[in-house]
Amino acid sequence: MHTEFLKAKNLIESAGSILLTMHERMDGDDGGSILALLHHLENSGKSTTAVIKYGVPEALAFLPGSKKIREDISDETYDLLITFGCAGKERVGLEKITALQAPVINIDHHPDNTFFGQLNLVDKNKSSVAELVYDFFNFCNWPITQEIATCLLTGIITDTGCFMHANTQSSTLKAASELTTKGARVSRITKHTAKIKKPEVLKAWSKAMENSRLDPESKIITSAITEDDLSEIGSLPKSAFEGFVETLNSIPEAKFAMFIRQDGPVIKGSLRSDTHKNVDVSKIAKLFGGGGHKLAAGFSLQGKITKDTKGQWKIK
Fold first, then answer.
1. DSSP H or E run through 301
2. What sign results for the dihedral spanned by CA atoms 10, 15, 18, 23?
3. Contact assessment for residue 147 and residue 65, using Cβ atoms and an 8 Å cutoff
4. Contact 271, 258 (CB under 8 A)
């Protein structure tokens, strides 16, 4: 990535105004990476705006600088657009951003990235976007403050499942170790992203577990949350089901796990597998118009999840 890193550094340093964005619904990896770069650019005196459709979920509000994230732009113009974790520019979900004519630096680690940027920092071998951004910081010799370290380590921790997923490698652990020496605290990050489960979230997980089914022949475990289920559960934070599909996938007999849930008129799907199970869930996600990694993928589609009289769910 030496050539790409050098070009990206020069493009960033020559830009007067910069817009940072990611796919809709902030997660710890891409959101943490945005905030890390936002801190550096603001510390360098750059005019920088960070925008994420639907804003910041409660679980990530602890991140330094999270209050600076906006949910949309008006009619501003920018010299440079930097996207995080987007397979295509349309993934940002905001028409005003997709219509921008500014050059794009596309930063991602997903294998289905379409290389839509004028400059593409894409490395599918990295555990997370945050690990890639950490490498970029080191290449540029940019200082990593405690705030930046916290944001980057949050990205690494959330995308590796607290270092339990198969994407964790020696470079990941080395980056995490060095970020802790800069002041990031694993215990504080996991407290917010992995440990806190409010009563209403536990109730939602209980319903999702109740709805789970393991097919004895295919060894596929599935679960679904319908609109009726959500009405019964009541108000939930946006991040309520984060980590649930990983819990399903932890069942030894399962070759892979699929969790779908109703989100207004859209069905959101998440799939997970493990290296030893030898299932490429990204191929399954592509059948529904989605994508992702071999062991972690997702999709969104218009439709409704319903249950029949026997309690079996269907998609319409």
1. strand 296-302
2. negative
3. yes
4. yes
What's the pLDDT at 28? 94
Q: What does DSSP assign to residue 221?
A: E
pLDDT range class, residue 109, cuts 50, 70, 90: very high
228 forms bridges with which residues in the sheet?
none
Q: Quickly tell me which residue has 């080395």 as its tokens.
A: 174
CATH number for the domain spanning 132: value is 3.90.1640.10
Local structure of 223: helix, strand or coil: strand
Residue range 238-255: mean pLDDT, rounded: 85
pLDDT for residue 34: 98
Per the CB < 8 A criterion, the answer to whether 164 and 194 are in contact is no
With a pLDDT cut of 70, the percent of the chain lying above it is: 98
Read off the pLDDT band of 268 (50, 70, 90): very high
DSSP state letters, 33-85: HHHHHHHHHHHTT-EEEEE-TT---GGGTTSTTGGG-BS---S---SEEEEES
As given in the structure block, the two tokens for residue 15 are: 């830009």
**Are 285 and 178 in a shared domain?**
no
Asked if 160 and 54 sit in the same domain, the reply is yes
Chain CA centroid to CA 40, Å: 21
Please tell me the predicted confidence (pLDDT) of residue 260: 95
- Identify the band that residue 195 occupies on the pLDDT scale cut at 50, 70 and 90: low
CA 105 to chain centre: 18
Query: DSSP alpha helices (H): ranges in the chain?
Result: 2-14, 28-43, 95-98, 129-140, 146-159, 170-181, 186-190, 199-210, 227-233, 244-249, 281-287
What is the model's pLDDT at position 311? 66
pLDDT score recorded for residue 196: 57
Within this chain, do residues 14 and 149 fall inside the same structural domain, yes or no? yes
The answer to whether the beta carbons of residues 291 and 283 sit under 8 Å apart is: no
Q: Which of these three, 194, 217, 233, is where a domain ends? A: 194
